[in-house]
Automatic annotation (TrEMBL):
It holds the Pfam family TP_methylase. Its EC number is 2.1.1.107, 1.3.1.76, 4.99.1.4. It comes from Steroidobacter gossypii. GO terms for molecular function: uroporphyrin-III C-methyltransferase activity. The lineage of its organism: Bacteria, Pseudomonadati, Pseudomonadota, Gammaproteobacteria, Steroidobacterales. This is Siroheme synthase. InterPro entries: 4pyrrol_Mease, 4pyrrol_Methylase_sf, 4pyrrole_Mease_sub1, 4pyrrole_Mease_sub2, CobA/CysG_C, NAD(P)-bd_dom_sf, Siro_Cobalamin_biosynth, Sirohaem_synt_dimer_dom_sf. The modification Phosphoserine is found at S128. Pathway: Porphyrin-containing compound metabolism; siroheme biosynthesis; sirohydrochlorin from precorrin-2: step 1/1; Cofactor biosynthesis; adenosylcobalamin biosynthesis; precorrin-2 from uroporphyrinogen III: step 1/1; Porphyrin-containing compound metabolism; siroheme biosynthesis; siroheme from sirohydrochlorin: step 1/1; Porphyrin-containing compound metabolism; siroheme biosynthesis; precorrin-2 from uroporphyrinogen III: step 1/1.
Length: 481
């Protein structure tokens, strides 16, 4: 971050604007919204500024900029059409440690002004450190259309209520729940839609009733959201997952959860890693279950984030059983499982009228002879088989499939780091899969897809130019069975 984002209180504070034209006028309009005491210095003023000066809204110093005019000022803006004057103003302001903005000159500016959406007291500022002003304007337009016009009314109402809420609800956690309930609830909806005047008697009564309900609840029951974080790309998170993440006091996550997804949690939420650490210390499933119960019993809202979908090879069921046994409330938010995410991002349709009429997800943690996997069924043609956690068992998987009738020409693909910027796809046949995986040094997490649909990757791949095209060596035509 090149610029520190702050909101500066300027009410009754002296600010110098150098320049009397249109650009200066726009900056002055903005400054006046903050009740700043604006002095403008320029040989002459455009009409709108002259009127303001005449009405005493701003002070006017007629003439050229003099460095002494900066003395005692909180902020300075150089907005003349003469670069040498602007540079002189910037230099003098810097000497006095007064933050200065030079219009359209980021090098000379100590601060720059963001694009804003003003729903005072709510102000949204968007900046690109000066790199992409058109982009910031586009973002502002989007925010303008998205943020309710009466957002300011709601914020003002909240501001008025704050002392009462603080006095009536002793605990910070209770107050936070009250506010979340307030902003998500019917009262806020009525204010935002204009159905109820924010100062209306009915609204105040309803708020009073809500406060009474919250004040009676001395302790809040904790709860757990078991959330599927998807295979990595944060864009694959569901809206419900995002909400659970942002409501959580504590987030428990493991190795498969990407940093980008974790970044979406509330900034002050506690983050606890419960996966395998690099030192190979492993938090056991029992410890994780116990921690979930403990946190919920302490009244926390816990988001248990799991890679992919929590109910697909995720041991989510075991965690919920522990919660159910302890009488803790929970919800489950499904996620995009690795098979769906990786296949989509690799351009491999898992079923296809011509190539696969059945689809099976299997754990690759199979032991060969002694496992319960129906290898004969998985080896049949017209079937796509997705192996999770299959990388370390690649040789066994290939051997079992071939023993049960799958031909060496059966196509397969390994997808490493699926949906992430580092995604790689290695395509092969059962005959050369182990060799190609070793050659490409495929690493975990990786998903194995076996079936003729994987041949479609060649024509349908769309994501990530870095994909490794380790095409199969068979020359019978990629799409023939
Ligand atoms: C313990 S399972 C968890 C599966 C997860 N619950 C899901 O629904 O995707 C872990 C396996 O999922 C697969 N996997 C998860 N994320 C992946 C990704 N981004 N790319 C490739 N494979 C992934 C790998 O096979 C990995 O060994």
């Amino acid at each position: 971050m090149d610029y520190f984002p702050i909101f500066l209180r300027l009410a009754n504070e002296p600010v110098l604007v150098v320049g009397g034209g249109e650009v200066a006028a726009r900056k002055i309009d903005l400054l006046l919204r903050t009740q700043a005491q604006v002095t403008v210095v320029a040989p002459e003023l455009i009409e709108s500024l002259a009127e303001k000066a005449h009405a005493g809204v701003i002070s006017y110093v007629s003439g050229e900029f003099q460095p002494e005019l900066l003395d005692g000022k909180r902020l300075a803006i150089a907005a003349t059409d003469k670069p040498s004057v602007n540079a002189w103003v910037a230099h003098q302001a810097e000497r006095r440690n007064i933050p200065v903005n030079v219009v359209d000159d980021r090098e000379l500016s100590r601060f720059i002004m963001p694009a804003i959406v003003d729903r005072s007291p709510v102000v949204v500022a968007v900046g690109s450190s000066g790199d992409a002003p058109v982009l910031t304007r586009r973002l502002r337009e989007k925010l303008e259309s998205f943020l309710p016009q009466r957002l300011g009314d709601l914020a003002k109402l909240a501001g008025k209520l704050r002392p009462t809420v603080k006095a009536r609800l002793e605990h910070a956690a209770t107050r936070r729940r009250f506010w979340e309930n307030f902003f998500d609830g019917a009262i806020a909806g009525d204010v935002l839609s204009g159905r109820q005047d924010a100062a209306g008697q009915n609204i105040l009564e309803r708020i009073g009733n809500s406060l009474t309900r919250f004040a009676k609840q001395s302790k809040f029951a904790g709860e757990v959201a078991l959330v599927g974080a998807g295979p990595g790309d944060p864009g694959l998170l569901t809206l419900r997952a995002l909400r659970a993440l942002q409501n959580a006091d504590v987030v428990l996550y493991d190795r498969l959860v990407s940093d980008e997804v974790l970044d979406l949690a509330r900034r002050d939420a506690e983050r606890i890693y419960v996966g395998k650490a690099s030192g190979n210390h492993h938090v056991s499933q029992e410890d994780t279950n116990a921690l979930l119960v403990k946190l919920a019993k302490a009244g926390k809202r816990v988001c248990r984030l799991k890679g992919g979908d929590p109910f697909i090879f995720g041991r989510g069921g075991e965690e919920l059983e522990a919660l159910a046994a302890a009488g803790i409330r929970f919800e489950v938010v499904p996620g995009v499982t690795a098979a769906a995410g990786c296949a989509a991002y690799a351009g491999i349709p898992l079923t296809h009228r011509d190539h696969a009429q059945a689809l099976t997800f299997v754990t690759g943690h199979c032991k060969g002879e002694s496992d319960n996997v129906d290898w004969a069924a998985l080896s049949r043609p017209g079937h796509t088989v997705v192996f999770y956690m299959g990388l370390s068992q690649l040789e066994t998987i290939v051997a079992r499939l071939r023993e049960h009738g799958a031909p060496g020409t059966r196509a397969a693909a390994l997808i490493e780091h699926g949906t992430r910027p580092t995604q790689r796809v290695v395509t092969a046949t059962l005959e050369d899969l182990v060799h190609k995986a070793a050659e490409a040094n495929v690493a975990s997490p990786a998903l194995l897809i076996v079936g003729e649909v994987t041949r479609l990757h060649d024509t349908l791949h769309w994501f990530n130019a870095r994909a490794v095209e380790a095409a199969s060596t068979d020359d019978e035509g990629r799409l023939s069975a």
